[in-house]
Amino acid sequence: MSLDVLKKLFEQYFQAPPEHVQPLQGELGGSGRKIIRFSNEKHRAIGILYGVREENAAFLAFSKHFRSHGLPVPEIYAEDLTHGVYLEEDLGDTTLFEFLSNNRTGENIAPQVVEAYRKVVAVLPRFQVEASRDLNYEVCYPNPSFDRQSIAWDLNYFKYYFLRLAGIPFNEHALEEDFTRLTEFLLSAPRDYFLYRDFQSRNIMLRNGDPFFVDYQGGRKGALQYDIASLCTTPRPTSRPICASNSSITISTAFPASSPSIAKLSSATTMPTFISASCKPSVLTVFAVSSNAGLISCKACPMR
């Protein structure tokens, strides 16, 4: 049994058996992985049970590589890929998402949250550029790069899990045409960087005020803009976006409006915009549009 294997790995590494076993699924886990905390009087560790060997191998390889570059990711204590388990450093219980949720009132965000986001944004280029230079992309799963298929997965996720579930009407044919044009536009961007893929507030832990990063097993080669946009918008459509970067970070994806299905969103840009996320010290504005459905969202989040 895989749980017994994890207990054995804990005992072998710490030279003492775990006294407490606490499942954390639903608290820190956003995938099919089972996440379990093992502890005794002196030691704590997180055990992972997951049956996809390739994804486990990617996470383990990335973790070791990132730590070799001094990046704040969990230390891997022990692994057994045959049984689909590994043991890693316990980074605590506080995610950046939880820290933000507990320290904001509407648009008023506590200064310590802004500082946490600044720290996170400061580390991101080290993943994307510095650690990317000698990263073995052959271990990436399921794709080594954010290619046409990866983009299609994201766009269809938007269609089926946002538009359809929210009951927003749209023209199927026009939307697919927009998806095709947007895909071509995205593929024209330089993609020789590490794309974290799930760089969002739920995958960033805070320990003593410093950020630590997890859930990068889906990483691959891609464009720089993807991850900062993921961070600036929360996963739930009902949540307000957040950005606390400095003024040097701006993401703006301009999409030529040669199709009548594209709506002009903002006078802030000289070109019609399909998706735009601008991060400044004082404001974050996120735009999204869907074909004939028109404007899906236009949110401004002042940073106080």
What does this structure look like?
The protein is of the alpha+beta class. The chain has 2 domains: 2-88, Phosphorylase Kinase, domain 1, CATH 3.30.200; 96-302, Aminoglycoside 3'-phosphotransferase, Chain: A, domain 2. 33% of the residues lie in helices and 24% in strands. It has helices at 2-14, 53-68, 96-102, 111-130, 148-166, 172-187, 225-232, and strands spanning 20-23, 34-39, 44-49, 76-80, 85-88, 104-105, 108-109, 193-195, 204-207, 210-213, 220-222, 250-254, 273-279, 283-290, 294-302. The chain has a 5-stranded antiparallel beta sheet, with helices on both faces. The protein has a 4-stranded antiparallel beta sheet with strand order 12-13-14-15. Strand 4 and strand 5 (85-88) form a beta hairpin. The longest helix has 20 residues, at 111-130. It is globular.
Element layout with pairings:
Layout (H helix, E strand, L loop, with lengths): L1 H13 L5 E4 L10 E6 L4 E6 L3 H16 L7 E5 L4 E4 L7 H7 L1 E2 L2 E2 L1 H20 L17 H19 L5 H16 L5 E3 L8 E4 L2 E4 L6 E3 L2 H8 L17 E5 L18 E7 L3 E8 L3 E9 L2
Antiparallel strand pairs: 1-2, 2-3, 3-5, 4-5, 6-7, 8-11, 9-10, 12-13, 13-14, 14-15
